[in-house]
Each structure stands twice: as C-alpha cells, then as structure tokens.
Amino acid sequence: MIERYFKPIMDHKVDLQERTFRLVTGFTITALILMLMGGLVTGENKESLLLLSGCIVLVVIITAASISRQQIHTGATLVTIILLIFFPINFFVSGGMYGGTPLWFAFFFVYINLTLQGVRRIIFSVCCLLTTVLCYYVDYLHPEYIIAHTIDVAHMGSAVAVILVGALTGAMILFQNHIYQEENRITNEQKREIQELSEAENHFFSSMSHEIRTPINTIIGLNEMILRSDVSDEVAENAKNIQGASKMLLTIINDILDMSKIESGKMDIVNVSYETGVFFSDIINMIWIKAQEKDLDFHLDIDSSIPSQLCGDEVRIKQILVNLLTNAIKYTSEGSVTLSVRCERRGVNRVRVYYSVQDTGLGVKQEDIPHLFSAFKRVDEEKNRYIEGTGLGLSIVKQLVDLMGGEINVNSVYTKGTTFLVTLDQDIIEEKELGTFTLESRGKIGSRVQYKQSFEAPKAQLLIVDDNEMNLVVAEKLLAETKIQIDTAKSGAECLKCTLTKRYDGILMDHLMPEMDGIECFHAVRSQLGGLCQETPVIALTANAGSANQLLYKNEGFNGYLAKPVSGALLEAAVLNILPKELVMLSEDAVQPEIGKDVLMFDQRKRVSLIITTDSVSDLPDELLERMGISVQPYYVCTDYGRFLDGRELETDDLLLYLAGGNKGASKAPDVEDYVNFFAEKLTEAQNVIHITMARYASEGYEHALEAAKSFENVTVLDSGHLSSGMGITVLYAAHLAAQNASREEITEMVEDFQNRVSTSFIMGNTKMLYRGGRISRGVHVLCETLLLHPVIKLNKSKMAVGGILAGNFVHVARKYIRKTLKDIPGIDKNILFITYSGMDYQSLKEIRDMIQQQCAFKHIYLQKASSAISSNCGPGSFGLLFLRKS
C-alpha cells in the first residue's frame, strides 16, 4: 500500500500538484506517526497523544479520499485546516514553548507553501503566522493555560521535534528537488526532440523542393524548346498551358517551403522594379485555364491609372494573388471570379495598391472567418471535403502580407461568395500609366515572341556538371543557339578529369551530387594540381533554392547562383555574364534579359589569399587604407535624430557642431549581423580575413565580430588592445605582414606580440563627453571643469585607465602632456607618430607639432582627425600621441 501511494510521485505523467501533495502529505503523516511514537517513549500526557492520534486518522482519511476523487486542492486545504487546529491545541497540551510543538509550526509553514496555490496559500500562511504569534503571546501572559512538562520530558520532546522536523523537511526538499530536476530533464529532452524534428522537417522540405524542382526543370526547359520551334498556334497554346501548369506546380512546392521559412523566421522580402502589365499577364496566364476548366467566368478590372512600373517584391505579390485566385476558383462551382486592382497616390513616388479577389462560391460562415488564415485548417469540412490542396495558401498569404507591411481583409456571405482585399504600398519607378488592360489586351503583352538568342560565342568553351542526365540535355538545348562549345560531366570526378585536360571559359555546377557534391568539386577545381580551370568562373546551377543557399554559394566563392527550374533567357544571361567579352558577339535585335532574384552574380575579381580589415575607429588616413588594401567596417554614431554610419553618413566636424548645441551623441559598435554581412562581402575578395578590433573592454565591437566570425571558417578576429590610431598602427603592421605573404597563423601570433609595443594615450580637452557617456560621475566632471583639470587616458592590456591628471590652460597642459609622454617612455621608435585630434584648429595643431619636434624628432608625423565615433567620446580640444616602442 505504501509503495502504491509513493510510486506515482516518480511518474512525470501524473499531475505535478498531485505528486507534490502525495509527497508532502505522506511525510506529514509519517512525521505525525513518529511524533506519536516519540510521545509514547517520552511519556507525553494522554490528552496530547489522544489528540495526535485523532489528527493522524483524519489526515489519512482526507488524503485517501482526495486522491481517489482527484480533488487534490480540496484535500490539501482540508489537511491544512486540521493541522491549523491541531498544532495550537497541541501547543497548549504539550508544554507550550518548552515542548516540541514550536518546531512543528515551522514544518507547517513548509507544508502550506508546497501544497497550496494562489490565494489559499497566502491566507493560510497568514493564519499560521497569526496562530504562532497568538500561542506565544498566551504562553507569555498566561502560563497557567499550558499543561507543563517535566524538564526531562521537555528536553526529550524538543530533541525529538528537532530531529524529526529537520530530517523530514530536508527529505521533502530533496524529493522536491528530484522532481523538479526530473521535470527539467524531460523538458530539455522534449526541446531537443522538437528541435531535431524541426531540423528534420526543414531538411525534408529542402530535399523535397530539390527533388521536385529537378523534373520540373526538365518539363519547363523542353517545353520552352517547343515554344521556340516553328509550330502551329494550337501546339504553341498547349505549350503555354503546360508552362503555366508547371509554374503552378512550382508555386505549390514553394508554398510548403515558404511555410517552413516563415516559421523559422528566414523569409526575405526582396523589392525589385517590375512591369505591371507583364505582372498581370503572368498571373492571368496561370489562372484563366483553371477558370475555364470549371466553366467559370473570369473578370478583370484593372485601374488604368496604375503606374506601368512599380517597385516591390514582385514574386511574393504574385504568390499572394495566385493563391487567392486559385482558392476562389477551388471554392466556386458556378458563377464568376473577379480580379480588381485600384491604386491611390500616397506621395510623390509612392502608391497604395488595392487588390481585390471576388468570387460567387461557397462563402464563409462568420464564425469561421477568424480561422481562415490558420495553417492546415479548412473551414466547413463537410461541404469542402472534395477540395484539393495543402491548406497552407491563406496562412502564407496572411504572413507574406504582414511581412510587406500590408493589410488583408475578408468579406463573405455564406453560400453567396467571398471577397479578399489586399492593400500594399509600393514605390513608383515609372510615372507612365498602364492604360487599358483587359483579357484581350493582355494577350498582346503575353503573346508568344519569336525566340532570338541574345548572343553567340562559337569559340567559347563551357562545362556543365550535373548528375541528372535530363538536366544536362535541357541546358545544352537551351544554349544551343548561342553556338557555345559545351562539354558535360555527370559527377565531380568526371568534372575534374575534364578540367585537368581542357581550359574552360565558364562552368555551371550542380550542388547536390553523390560522392562529391558541387561545393567539394568547386574547391577541388580551384586547388587542382596542374588543373587548367583554377581561375575559371563557376556558377552554381542548382535546385537548392532560398536566400540561405545564395549566401552559402557566395561565401564558398562561386561566381554566381542560378536557381532551377531555369528559363533559356536567364540561363543565357548568367552565361553571358561570365564569358570573356572578346569571345562574345551580342545579337543586335535580341532583348537582353534582366538578372532577377533567381540569378545572382557575385563579384568575379580574383580572390587574394588574405586581407586585413578593421573598424572605422582605427583612425587611419584614407591614403594609407587605400595603399595597404585595408577595408573598414564603420561604427555607428547614435543621436536624437537617428543612427549614422561613422565617416560615411556623419563627419566629425558636423557631429561636434551638433554636440556643441547641448545635444547628445554616442558611439555604438556594429551589430553581429553587420559584421556577418561585412565578412561575407570580404570573402568574395579573399580566401581569408583577419579583422582587427578596438580593445575588447572599451567596446562591444570585439565580441560582436567574434560572434559573427563563428559563421565562417576563414575569418579571424583579433583584439588590438588599443583604440583610435593606436589600433590603426596595429592594423598597418598586420597589413604589412599580409603584403609579405605571411600566413594567417603567423600574422595572428606576431600581432599579439606587437600590440605590447604600441603606446596609446589621450589628453582630454574637457570631461563633458566622459560625463555624458557615463564614464565619470557628475561630481568629478564639475570638479574638473572648475579646477581646469584634464585627465590623461591610457590603454593597457585592452583596458582604459586614467594615466594622470594635468591642470591649467591648453598650452600649458599640452606641453606638459607631450613632455611627460615622450620623456617617460624609453626606447621610442621614431619612425612614425600619429597626432590624432578632435575639434582643434590648424594653429593649435601646429603648436603641438612644434612641441613634439623639440622633444623628439619623428621621421613621419601624421595629423589625423579622429573619427566621429571616437570624437563622440572625447569631445573637442582633445588629442593623443600614438606611436611605437622599440622591441
């Protein structure tokens, strides 16, 4: 029976409140029984033992009844009431404060807080507190009410109470901790399982997308060859219908993939310019056949004043409208479906577009409208049980509209029809109005155009690598009219055989191939010993769609990315982009296709082995940055008017003028995402990047850059240990080593030793910026202002510290700072000195330069204006001496 009582305590499937109640009440009953046994041993009076026995019986009955009836909260409350009555009575019959009962009051507090919840816990805790105080109060004023113990019984009772209460309370806490640890373990396991399931789901969606896109690529590609041929209008019309159906199938695949992206927060909105006439034609070409198949009338009402060219995410807007129109046709058995478009000017270059999709179908009940946009939810299942679809369409529509900052509304009368209204703001690219657009006129826009290749390159050599033979056939056929000499390879190994014996002008590379995938093959081509294509541009031609994969290919060093299924025009555009210009003859009357979001061409400059990068706070002259090939990531300067890029959007003098008006401004390190984008861009120029940051304890830049570098295997982040031009000297040294072809490991080791030789210090013109930045208190600031005190800030082991305080006017303070800095530091390297300043005129700088030359003759002295990010912390009238010590 005892085992049956305590066994559910370890079962995480049992409600936690019941488990806790079983545990604590079980210990309480055990404690009362032990208390009874102890009373018998110590010779407790009969009244106390009788009262204790009755209490045990009542608690056991209530506990058993509450567990069997699943009334745990009620049972815990009744047990608490019994104990609240029992302990005060027992207090008076068991020796009062000289017995063992006072310790049981402490046990009672623990019981209440473990078993009760909400208001009941508070009420009974207060009752327990008041009862304890009252008992002690009565014992103190009226000891005659207490049934006294002998000294022996009092000592034994008190000792037994201490042992029991201590042991039982400790045991309860241990069990309670065990329960919570077990629950935490189970929760973590569930989180891990959910995460693994999510990763498996994303992998499945991605794999499914890739596998299905491959045959669709064949269908669309070969169908395009039919459209290029001299066939009858009937065959051409059928081919156009196949093209529309293929795109519809691709839309369904994208719906599933998009839902996965949206749920993981990886959906991107990419705004591009597009022709509204072509946009509407594409939508109608995909939809009107479906309407015809169901004998539905398809009406079109396009506002003639809509601009002919807008800027928005054309693909996503098209996806929204196709989803809504497809749904309208699905749920309409007779009548019509209407697409209406209206526009409203919102500014000089802004327009609000209202897209309305209306049908005469089943309609939606009012109570079901809130569920329309739920994934996999279909309302009115009985009437709609024969409707096909994933149930994702409207959910994706709603989330895409939200991502683009638009609105979507639904009006519906059950059995009469439904109207969806989507509102989106877009930029105007071309003011010219679209004019009249009807089902008849759209035929002119979307009609078949006689194919004409955009270029010819009969002497160009192209290699296409793909493990799917039909993909190779499609690509060869689509490029046949360009007269390019094409070789194909069905695996990475076959590709390497080709590149070892033949020089190609371009390579199209599939990604997911067995044995050696496209990325591995690409790197093998680049490093192939004796290979003839180490510098040949390579485009990833793959069914691995999505922005994450685009970034992957860019980071790996590919020259471009082209998503399957691919049209002939886009394939030509991509190939044209990588072929040597001298091998290409452009067709005069052919239209050059624009490279859209499914075709990305990355920077094709030859990547060097290693480059040095840094932040704008390194305060280096532009000519040195350019000469040494050092790239800079700008810091931010935050003001009341927004956040500005240091040196690009806000110059130092403008900032100081702004601060002089009593305004606030502070520097801020780039975000992790800023560094990720910066490193990704630099890795298109170099195989390795070493980024040198400001001292880690002076800014968050080091931590942010370090976190961003985790996304790349070939980015190293180094802490310069300094700021401003002191940091810049370290950067110049690293760039000098890189120019001598030192390895990444050698540069890292040598820079860490070198930074100990750099001396960085500043004399502050005033302490206003230090006070505003929270680096000193108001009292210290007022004291410095009153007594003309100027702190000297030094950098030591990446930490900023006050290296001294100088008093007096500017000339006196400057002379003393220069003399002390250049005199007290032994072994100065006199080759180079940076005088980095903020808000100082030419005359003052000339005086400083003369003072320095009198003290120590440097070979090269650079007068460097501090960046706006540095100036926001030091303020006007500040300057620093930054130089090297001899090793």
Shape: extended
Tell me about the largest β-sheet. 7 strands, mixed
* Average pLDDT number: 81
End-to-end distance = 82 Å
Supply database-style keywords.
about 900 residues, alpha/beta, seven-stranded mixed sheet, six-stranded mixed sheet, 29 helices, 28 strands
What does this protein structure show overall?
This protein has 887 residues and is an alpha/beta fold. 50% of the residues lie in helices and 20% in strands. The chain contains 29 helices and 28 strands. The strands form six sheets. Strands 1, 2, 3, 4, 5, 6 and 7 form a seven-stranded mixed sheet that branches. It has a six-stranded mixed sheet with strand order 10-9-11-12-13-15, sandwiched between helices. A six-stranded mixed sheet has the order 25-24-23-28-26-27, with helices on both faces. Helix 19 links the parallel strand 16 and strand 17 (631-633). Helix 2 (16-42) packs parallel to helix 4, helix 7 (151-228) packs across helix 14 and helix 27 (810-824) packs parallel to helix 28 (842-855). The longest helix is centred in the first third of the chain and has 78 residues, at 151-228. It is extended and about 120 Å long.
Secondary structure elements and their pairing?
Blueprint: H1 2-6, H2 16-42, H3 46-68, H4 72-93, H5 101-115, H6 118-141, H7 151-228, H8 233-263, E1 272-275, H9 276-293, E2 297-302, E3 307-312, H10 314-330, E4 336-347, E5 350-359, H11 381-384, H12 393-403, E6 407-413, E7 417-433, H13 442-446, E8 455-456, E9 461-465, H14 469-478, E10 485-489, H15 492-501, E11 506-509, H16 518-526, E12 538-542, H17 547-556, E13 560-563, H18 568-578, E14 585-586, E15 599-601, E16 608-615, H19 622-628, E17 631-633, E18 636-639, E19 642-645, H20 652-660, E20 665-668, H21 672-682, E21 686-693, H22 701-709, E22 715-719, H23 724-739, H24 744-754, E23 758-763, H25 768-772, H26 778-787, E24 789-796, E25 799-807, H27 810-824, E26 828-838, H28 842-855, E27 860-865, H29 868-874, E28 878-885
Parallel strand pairs: 2-4, 9-10, 9-11, 11-12, 12-13, 16-17, 16-21, 21-22, 26-27
Antiparallel strand pairs: 1-3, 3-7, 4-5, 5-7, 6-7, 8-14, 13-15, 18-19, 18-20, 23-24, 23-28, 24-25, 26-28
Helix pairs in contact: 2-3, 2-4, 2-7, 3-4, 4-5, 4-6, 5-6, 5-7, 7-8, 7-14, 8-9, 8-12, 9-10, 10-12, 15-16, 20-29, 21-22, 23-24, 27-28
